[in-house]
């Protein structure tokens, strides 16, 4: 009798906390760990070796990770391997794709009469999971962006004489949660971005150029935040493709900077912040750490309780109370930024900033 834990998708700054919480919640039960993402489940490479002291204290991912397009035959192999290991419960740490994967395993196990219990543990910097107010990983990424971008605005103010426009790109293929987080400025209101572009708003290059031109006329410089998923037609980056094996490295900020330079005749810089926003431990949110660990602990307890929830994702309400969300309500779904926060002017986003304040812990 064993509980199995694995992770798919990219790391976050706090994902190891969920591993720690799971191991704590499992108490004396036997735990098997899958290292390397879905491949570990397909091949049945599940090991009983537990982390050494310090393995779960840093960013990155102790379990490793990976992506794989899962075929029907793979699901049968996974069920077979889990049965061979005597697994009674399975938790996967990840986002909406991971929850779809776990839901498929649950359905295949049920179809075959295998009484497997499954509980998903949320993890994504994109904050695009249904059924949870904010996902573990997001608060730390948001804190990093809010702090770093404020410093970049300060730098731009100093350099505005020779660099009129700076365009900074965050992660976020389908949603603008991270882009909006990068425009957070309650901790330093004088150094806010001038514009923020998110995928939820239709993009027009002509309108964008006009907005930048207006900012230049008003103050002589313009600082723009853009989500990587804005205007994918302008780049060769496959931001909207199924992301099983292809690297997505962004680049829309540089394309937009070139357009600004050519159309407005001013100097413009495009920058891609990159993976630092998801892995930096220097600016990790303490609340994010606590909640990531708590959700791992909840998942293990539910798996070990025959009367506990199964076929669900472990979640927390905005007040911090545990909540079981059916996997079918999360699997493959994208939680977009709500309409009320789809604004391009950071100074018109008071409601978003108030919501984000207790998560980023900068004020």
Q: How many separate structural domains?
A: 2
Structural class: alpha/beta
Reading off the top of the CATH hierarchy, the class of the largest domain is best stated as Alpha Beta
Fraction in beta strands: 15-25%
Low-confidence stretches: none
User: What integer value in Å does the Rg equal?
Assistant: 22 Å
Say what the CATH topology of the largest domain is: Rossmann fold
Strand order of the largest sheet: 3-2-1-4-5-10-11
Number of DSSP helical runs: 11
Find the count of extended strands (DSSP E, 2+ residues): 11
Helix content: 25-40%
SSE string, helices as H and strands as E: EHEHEHEHEHEHEHEHEHHEEH
What is the mean pLDDT?
94
Major β-sheet profile: 7 strands, mixed
What would the principal axes of the Cα set say about the shape? elongated
Question: How does this structure look, described?
Answer:
α1 (15-26) packs parallel to α10 and α7 packs across α8 (252-264). α7 links the parallel β7 (195-197) and β8 (222-227). The chain is 38% helix and 16% strand. The longest helix is centred in the middle third of the chain and has 22 residues, at 138-159. The protein is built from eleven helices and eleven strands. By secondary structure, it is an alpha/beta fold. The radius of gyration is 22 Å and the shape is elongated. The protein has helices spanning 15-26, 38-43, 72-84, 96-111, 138-159, 177-182, 205-219, 252-264, 276-279, 286-304, 350-360; strands spanning 2-7, 30-34, 46-47, 87-94, 117-122, 165-170, 195-197, 222-227, 268-272, 312-316, 322-326. The protein has two domains: 2-136 and 283-329, Rossmann fold (3-Layer(aba) Sandwich), CATH 3.40.50.450; 141-282 and 337-360, 3-Layer(aba) Sandwich (Rossmann fold), CATH 3.40.50. Strands 3-2-1-4-5-10-11 form a seven-stranded mixed β-sheet, sandwiched between helices.
């Amino acid at each position: 009798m064993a509980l199995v834990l694995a992770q798919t998708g990219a790391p976050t700054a706090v994902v190891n906390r969920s591993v720690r919480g799971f191991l704590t919640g499992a108490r004396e039960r036997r735990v098997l760990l899958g290292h390397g993402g879905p491949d570990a489940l397909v091949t049945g490479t599940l090991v009983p070796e537990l982390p050494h002291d310090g393995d779960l204290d840093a960013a990155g991912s102790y379990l490793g990770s990976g992506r794989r397009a899962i075929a029907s035959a793979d699901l049968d192999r996974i069920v077979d391997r889990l049965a061979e290991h005597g697994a009674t419960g399975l938790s996967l740490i990840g986002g909406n794709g991971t929850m779809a994967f776990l839901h498929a395993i649950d359905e295949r196990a049920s179809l075959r009469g295998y009484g497997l219990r499954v509980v998903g543990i949320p993890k994504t910097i994109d904050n695009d999971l249904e059924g949870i107010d904010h996902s573990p990983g997001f608060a730390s990424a948001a804190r990093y962006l809010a702090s770093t971008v404020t410093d970049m605005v300060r730098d731009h103010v100093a350099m505005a004489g020779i660099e009129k426009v700076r365009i900074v790109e965050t992660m976020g293929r389908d949603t603008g949660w991270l882009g909006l987080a990068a425009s957070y400025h309650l901790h330093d209101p004088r150094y806010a971005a001038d514009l923020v572009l998110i995928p939820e708003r239709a993009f027009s290059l002509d309108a964008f150029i006009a907005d930048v031109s207006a900012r230049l006329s008003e103050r002589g410089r313009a600082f723009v935040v853009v989500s990587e998923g804005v205007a994918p037609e302008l780049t060769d980056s496959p931001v909207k493709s199924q992301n099983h094996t292809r690297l997505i490295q962004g680049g829309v900020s540089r394309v937009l900077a070139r357009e600004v330079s050519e159309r407005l005749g001013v100097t413009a810089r495009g920058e891609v912040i990159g993976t630092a926003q998801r892995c930096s431990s220097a600016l990790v949110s303490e609340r994010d750490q606590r909640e990531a660990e708590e959700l791992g602990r909840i998942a293990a307890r539910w798996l070990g309780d025959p009367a506990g929830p199964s076929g669900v994702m472990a979640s927390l309400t905005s007040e911090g109370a545990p909540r079981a969300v059916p996997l079918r309500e999360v699997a493959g779904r994208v939680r977009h930024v709500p309409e009320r926060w789809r604004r391009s002017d950071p100074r018109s986003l008071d409601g978003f900033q108030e919501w984000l304040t207790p998560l980023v812990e900068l004020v």
